[in-house]
């Protein structure tokens, strides 16, 4: 018995050593980024193997916050927050409605359209990038958030699939009971289904935030005014092919833009696991 307990403790200790080692390995680039943001820009890659800055400087943060083109970095953060907020509303509303239709409503060709929706999930963005750009150019939407935000109000295949799988775990008896009580289809959606898929909706919101916050290709395609740049574009502007790149300011602002990401994940990480597991009702 004592030998079994010792073996169990050894496995437990070994497990945490291995997991802790992987955690340190994965976190080291972030730690290196943070410490490098306090180095002088010219020394960052010269002393890349040294973690501790020498000398230790705070100048990168005010320099980075000054921004460029007469706009401070606060402008780029504000633009990104607007972008993220609109995408959150679009994805949560459209994806939940579409998923409810696929999971609960019976209509002609439901399986066919669901398959078509999944096929679009497999298409790389590069395939549709040029046709979309031509359409938005003809609509006169360039240099605005419309090309980036409006498609979000028509659903996203990954989140639709996630929500469909989650809704299918919810017993249909709840829908039938609500129907007997006089609830119509839409009332079943927002009174029965929405409260029960909160973990999946939270997962949708978290991934939407992440993918929108660091989206670079979309804003680069459609935005050309510095007053409308997002944080990903602003960080890219610190790099230059013609003059000296300001890596110190870029690293400093990278640390600033990482703060909302870490805060969001820290408080809502449990919803990611619950949402992806599609556990539905417990008990």
From TrEMBL:
Residues 77-268 form the ABC transmembrane type-1 domain. Keywords: Cell membrane, Membrane, Sugar transport, Transmembrane, Transmembrane helix, Transport. The chain crosses the membrane at residues 12-35, 81-100, 112-136, 148-167, 188-213, 247-268. Pfam families: BPD_transp_1. InterPro entries: MetI-like, MetI-like_sf. Gene3D superfamilies: MetI-like. It comes from the Bacteria. This is Multiple sugar transport system permease protein. It comes from Aquibacillus albus.
